[in-house]
Amino acid sequence: MRRFFITLALIVCCVAGFTQNSVQYNIEPAIVTIQDDYVRTWKRLGEVDGYRIQIAAVTGTNSKSTAENERFLFRSRFPETPAYISYMEPYFRIRVGNYKTRLEAYFALVEIRTAYPNAYIIPDKITYSE
Known about the structure:
4 helices, 27% strand, alpha+beta
């Protein structure tokens, strides 16, 4: 009989201990302040080192309009990915994406190569986003 009551008491304690329905986090105000400062600082920087994918480099007659057309075609195929045109003599380069890591850029490259087989990853300054 004694064993029965001990077992019953243990079951009641276990059930009472595991029936908690909510979790409350007590976050220090200083941690929230530090986190907000971190986000504000990175937003002020604007550009950080990262990666982009270069899909084309155009030179020659009408190269600017060709680059703009290529950018438009890319945006119609991949509307979620930003595309940028930059000029470094004698090329207009079309680069896409804002990737913080090379691995992140690689996963996007696999998808982009279906439409642009000569695309490749290149280090670049990227626009910071949360």
